[in-house]
Backbone:
């Protein structure tokens, strides 16, 4: 399986749990779901993917969307504070 | 003849009076404002008037037209001098002719009073001692923006009279605003849901900008823990209804704004009534229930809703236009999105300026929408992380299977929370009914107030990861302090297949109330 370099950004609870806002990583994950599962091994994420949205290259996308080298992936939980 | 105009030449009042003649009129009234030789002990030698002609002419014409409509007079006109004037020159002339004298007098008085308050004209006085100073005398509403230190007493303005309108010249000066944009803002009605961290800057800037009507919905009373981010309020205001407080502040800032305060929580029963008559809705609430309710309202009524939410050091901004082609909140967020799962200001904490930034952005986007300026696209979400200062604009597409879009046009279904929540007088009673208790409070809360009955501990933060330890066939009763989090948790667990779980209505607090 080929490895790709991907830029990831975290928001809200995910940023807290990952302890960072963004990072560039090399992954074998084929799609966003696999990438999130992989990251969940590394960080104590409590939110399942079903509760989040993923955006790829500035567009909300599907979890099954294949990842390409150089993609910018953003994981966003809903927030409601006011 | 233009009903309101400026003249650089001395006024020929006889000629102006002839223009007012009409065979149907039995009365003519005129007012002349003259250049006087003194102002608070200082001898004035001459005057200069300047104006912002494009705006001033439109506003002046509007005033004369208002007077004609209001008093039913036949002819009315007002001419104001600009440029350099000598003592005793006529600075302003108002003439009105009508069938009867009463209307003529009243319309004449109305025109000169309104012109003095509303039309931007500045006066530079030259004094005998050689000094001079710009006096914003005609627009008494605005403190003079000039350097002279003398306090001028103007005969036409009692300085103890409350000022009636702010001066919008600094925003009207923007090419994209102008007099036309200002008129648009004046004609706009905006519903603001939530008068907290987001609502405060929103209301401040919309009121300041001269948005004609603002309606404020907030069920809460001010608490000391609100003040670090809701800095419009005062410590002494704690305990008072925020909607009323915010309305008071709006009136103090801009008495021109028509403001209504509603001390209630937006729900399916009142949402349509509250939104009626408004052009734009701003969601400044702190919970998903309200946000999704407003989303449904947008789809049902096609009224745009501008959403903002904050979390610790970041936030999201999104506009939902309510049409069939663009994304709504439900197109973006999963059905399982519930309050209590990702934290609010009380649970997760927030730094004061964060809602300040997002409320300001929300006010900015709202003004741009009203002024028809480009901004956030429908469905697009702006995410701004105020720690890293990263911003993202993410495009969202209308989801083909969006439930909210499918439902739009249909009456709102009442909340399914009816059978989700159950009420008991005591935990013993609930136990007798066959329930197993699941305490969703955190460990500190449990230590502070033990449940007094054996229970599983499953704090909200672990609910999703440890739900697998529950048995889908058992009857669980989820319990928290007030019943709010447990309802969210129960609803989420149901969506995961735990169809028999319920939430204790009113929580532990509710039990005490009954006992």
Residues:
């Amino acid at each position: 399986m080929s490895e790709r370099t991907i830029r990831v950004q975290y928001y809200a609870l995910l940023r807290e749990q990952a302890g960072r806002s963004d990072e560039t990583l090399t992954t074998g994950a084929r799609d966003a779901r696999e990438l999130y599962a992989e990251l969940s091994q590394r960080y104590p994420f409590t939110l399942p993917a079903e509760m989040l949205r993923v955006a790829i290259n500035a567009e909300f996308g599907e979890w099954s969307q294949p990842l390409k080298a150089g993609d910018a992936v953003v994981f966003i939980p809903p927030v409601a504070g006011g | 003849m233009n009903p309101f105009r400026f003249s650089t030449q001395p006024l020929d009042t006889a000629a102006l009076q002839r223009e007012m003649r009409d065979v149907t009129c039995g009365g003519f009234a005129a007012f002349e404002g003259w250049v006087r030789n003194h102002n608070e002990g200082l001898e004035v030698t001459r005057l200069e008037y300047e104006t912002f002609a494009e705006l001033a002419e439109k506003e002046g014409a509007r005033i004369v037209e208002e007077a004609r409509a209001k008093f039913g007079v036949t002819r009315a006109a007002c001419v104001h001098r600009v440029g350099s004037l000598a003592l005793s020159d006529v600075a302003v002339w108002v003439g009105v002719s009508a069938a009867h004298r009463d209307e003529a007098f009243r319309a004449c008085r109305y025109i000169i009073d309104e012109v003095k308050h509303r039309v931007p004209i500045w006066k530079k006085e030259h004094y005998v001692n050689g000094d001079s100073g710009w006096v914003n005398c005609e627009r008494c509403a605005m403190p003079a923006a000039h350097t002279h230190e003398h306090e001028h007493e103007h005969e036409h303005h009692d300085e103890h009279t409350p000022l009636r309108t702010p001066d919008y010249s600094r925003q009207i000066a923007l090419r994209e605003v102008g007099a036309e944009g200002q008129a648009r803002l004046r004609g706009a009605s905006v519903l603001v849901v939530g008068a907290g961290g987001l609502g405060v800057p929103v209301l401040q800037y919309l009121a300041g900008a001269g948005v004609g009507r603002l309606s404020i919905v907030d069920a809460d009373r001010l608490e000391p823990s609100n003040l670090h981010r809701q800095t419009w309020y005062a410590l002494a205001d704690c305990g008072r209804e925020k909607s009323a407080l915010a309305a008071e502040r709006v009136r103090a800032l801009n008495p021109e704004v028509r403001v209504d305060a509603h001390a209630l929580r937006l729900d399916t029963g009142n949402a349509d009534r509250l939104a009626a008559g408004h052009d734009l809705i701003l969601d400044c609430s702190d919970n998903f229930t309200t946000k999704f309710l407003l989303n449904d309202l947008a789809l049902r009524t096609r009224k745009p809703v501008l959403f903002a939410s904050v979390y610790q050091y970041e936030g999201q901004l999104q506009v939902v236009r309510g049409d069939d082609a663009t994304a709504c909140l439900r197109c973006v967020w999963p059905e399982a999105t519930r309050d209590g799962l990702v934290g609010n200001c009380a649970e997760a904490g927030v730094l004061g300026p964060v809602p300040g930034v997002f409320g300001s952005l929300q006010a900015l986007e709202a003004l741009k929408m009203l002024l028809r300026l480009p901004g956030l696209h429908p469905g697009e979400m702006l995410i701004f992380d105020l720690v890293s200062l990263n911003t993202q604009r993410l495009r969202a597409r209308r989801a083909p299977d969006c439930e909210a879009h499918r439902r739009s046009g249909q009456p709102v279904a009442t909340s399914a929370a009816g059978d989700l929540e159950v009420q008991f007088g005591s935990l013993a009673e609930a136990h007798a009914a066959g329930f197993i208790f699941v305490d969703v409070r955190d460990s500190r809360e449990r230590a502070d107030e033990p449940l007094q009955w054996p229970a599983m501990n499953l704090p909200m933060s672990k609910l999703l990861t440890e739900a697998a330890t529950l048995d889908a066939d058992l009857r669980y009763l989820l319990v928290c302090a007030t019943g709010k989090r447990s309802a969210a948790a129960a609803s989420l667990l149901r969506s995961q297949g735990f169809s028999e779980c319920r939430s204790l209505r009113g929580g532990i607090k509710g039990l005490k109330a009954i006992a």
Summary: Strands of chain A lie at 4-10, 22-27, 53-56, 59-61, 72-76. Chain A touches chain B through 27 residues (CB under 8 Å). The mean pLDDT of chain A is 91.
